[in-house]
Design a protein that fits this description.
Elements lengths: L8 H5 L5 H28 L6 H8 L2 H15 L1 H18 L5 H18 L1 H29 L18 H14 L16 H30 L2 H6 L10 H10 L1 H35 L16 H15 L8 H17 L15 H24 L2 E4 L2 E4 H28 L1
Helix pairs in contact: 2-8, 2-9, 2-14, 2-15, 3-4, 4-12, 4-14, 4-16, 5-6, 5-12, 5-13, 6-7, 6-12, 6-13, 7-9, 7-11, 7-12, 8-14, 8-15, 11-12, 12-13, 14-15
Length: 427
C-alpha cells in the first residue's frame, strides 16, 4: 500500500486545503479503505477464491460484469501504476547516480521484479516481504526523526487557502489522490487461494493492514504540515524543485543536504516495494480469467507455482508503457476507474440470493459496503467535474467518462468474441 504517493500527495492538497483539512482527508481516506476492507472480508467468506473484483462480480452479479473488472485490471489497474512507479524510481536513481537513463533503469527494475515473481512462490513471497519490511523500517525512521527533531505543533499557514466555508470540491478531489495512495488495501483478495484459511486470514490481513497504514499516513503527514510552510509544501508542485519529495524537504530542513539525498533511497525502495506488490497480485487476476477460459490457457494458474505467463504478461505491458510517450495522463483517471470497480464489488454484497450459511454477511460489513460505495460515488462525481473536457458531437464530455466507456466497450467486445468462439467450438 505504501508508495511514493504519501511523500508527495500533500503537496497537491496544500494548493487548496489548510493543514487541518489535509490531515482530515488522510483520516477519512483511511476510514473509507477500512469500510471497504470490512465489506471485502465478507465477500471473501462468500467466495474464498483468488481474483479480487473479477471473481466477486462474476460469481455474485454476472460473468460479464466481472469480465469488465478484469479488463480494467489488465488495461489500467496494474500495468500503468507499475510503469509510472518504475519511472519514478528511475528518476530518483538519477539523484544518486547522475547520468543514468531513467527509462532503462525503470525497465531493468520491472525485469528484476518480474523474474523474481515468476520464479517460484517462495522467491515471490520473500521478495515482497523483504522489500515491505525494509520500506517500513525506513518510513518509521523518518517519522521518528520528524517527531523527535522537528516541530510537533501544527500552525495555520499565513499564505494558506482560506477555509471560511468547507471547500467540498477541493476536499473530495483531494480524496481521489488520497484513495489512490490507499490503493492495495484489497490486495490479499487477488491471491486468496494461496492463503492458509483464506476465510479468516484474508479479511484479517486487510483490516490490520488498513489500520497500520492509516496510522503511518497520519504520522507522516503530521510531520509534513508541522515542519513545512505553505510555500515549501507547494514548491515542487509549482516546478520550483526537481525530483524530490516533501520528505526530502523535511530532512533537509532538519538534518541537512546529506539526509535529504538519503531520502532518494527510501523513495526507490518504497517504489520497488509497490511495484513488487502489483506484480504479485495483478497476474492472479489474469490467471483467474484464464481459469474461467476468458483468456488463453497459457495464463492460467499453476498448482504450487505462480502464474508465470501472467506475470510475464504484466511485466511486458509495463515495460512497453515505460517506453511510450503520452501515457502519463492515464494516472489522473486510474484512481476513479478503480473506485468505480471496487464500489460495484462491495454493492454486490447486497445480493441476498448469493448469501450462504455461516458466510452470510452481518450488519457491519453491509454498513461498510454502503459507506464505501457512497464515498466512492462522491469522489467520482467530483472527479468528473474536474476532469478535462473533450468535445464529442458538439458536447463537452469529461475525459474520465470516455475512458470508462472505452474500457467497458473493449471488455464487452472481447467478452462477446469469447462466448462466440466457445459456441463455435461446442458445435
Amino acid at each position: 500500500m505504501i508508495g511514493v504517493g504519501v511523500l508527495t500527495t500533500a503537496g497537491f492538497m496544500a494548493l487548496d486545503l489548510p493543514p487541518g483539512l489535509i490531515l482530515l482527508a488522510w483520516f477519512v481516506g483511511g476510514i473509507v479503505a477500512l469500510a471497504g476492507s470490512v465489506a471485502y472480508g465478507a465477500l471473501v467468506r462468500l467466495v474464498p477464491r483468488s481474483g479480487g473484483e473479477y471473481r466477486y462480480l462474476s460469481e455474485l452479479l454476472h460473468p460479464a460484469v466481472g469480465y469488465i473488472a478484469g479488463w480494467t485490471s489488465l488495461l489500467v489497474g496494474f500495468s500503468v501504476p507499475v510503469a509510472l512507479a518504475s519511472l519514478g524510481a528511475g528518476a530518483f536513481a538519477e539523484t544518486i547516480l547522475p547520468g543514468v537513463d531513467l527509462r532503462i533503469t525503470a525497465a531493468i527494475l520491472i525485469g528484476i521484479v518480474t523474474v523474481s515473481h515468476a520464479g517460484n512462490l517462495r522467491a515471490s513471497k520473500w521478495t515482497q516481504d523483504i522489500l515491505a519490511m525494509v520500506k517500513s523500517i525506513l518510513i518509521a525512521a523518518f517519522v521518528v526523526v520528524g517527531l523527535s527533531v522537528g516541530s510537533n505543533s501544527v500552525e495555520p499557514w499565513t499564505s494558506a487557502p482560506e477555509a471560511d466555508a468547507f471547500p467540498a470540491g477541493a476536499f473530495f478531489t483531494s480524496l481521489i489522490f488520497v484513495s489512490f495512495c490507499y490503493t492495495g488495501w484489497n490486495a490479499a483478495t487477488y491471491a486468496a487461494e494461496e492463503f492458509e484459511n483464506p476465510r479468516r486470514n484474508v479479511p484479517l490481513s486487510m483490516v490490520v493492514g488498513c489500520t497500520l497504514v492509516m496510522a503511518v499516513y497520519l504520522l507522516v503527514n503530521w510531520v509534513f504540515v508541522a515542519n513545512l510552510d505553505h510555500s515549501q509544501m507547494t514548491a515542487w508542485i509549482q516546478g520550483d524543485t526537481d525530483r524530490i519529495t516533501l520528505a526530502h524537504l523535511v530532512m533537509q530542513n532538519l538534518l541537512g543536504v546529506g539526509a535529504a539525498k538519503a531520502m532518494s533511497i527510501v523513495v526507490i525502495l518504497a517504489l520497488a516495494s509497490a511495484i513488487s506488490a502489483m506484480m504479485l497480485i495483478g497476474p492472479r487476476v489474469y490467471a483467474a480469467m484464464a481459469d474461467d477460459r476468458f483468456l488463453p490457457q497459457v495464463f492460467a494458474s499453476q498448482a504450487g507455482s505462480p502464474p508465470r505467463a501472467s506475470v510475464v504478461l504484466q511485466g511486458a505491458l509495463a515495460i512497453t508503457l515505460v517506453f511510450m510517450s503520452g501515457f502519463r495522463e492515464l494516472l489522473n483517471n486510474v484512481g476513479s476507474i478503480l473506485a468505480v470497480a471496487s464500489a460495484a464489488t462491495v454493492l454486490s454484497l447486497f445480493r441476498r440470493s448469493r448469501w450462504r450459511g455461516d458466510a452470510r454477511p452481518g450488519l457491519v460489513p453491509l454498513v461498510g459496503a454502503a459507506v464505501y460505495a457512497m464515498m466512492s460515488g462522491w469522489m467520482v462525481y467530483f472527479a468528473m467535474q474536474s476532469s478535462e473536457k473533450v468535445t464529442v458531437v458538439g458536447t463537452q464530455v469529461p475525459s474520465l467518462a470516455l475512458w470508462m466507456l472505452g474500457i467497458v466497450t473493449a471488455a464487452m467486445i472481447a467478452y462477446s468474441s469469447t462466448l462466440a468462439a466457445r459456441r463455435s467450438s461446442a458445435l
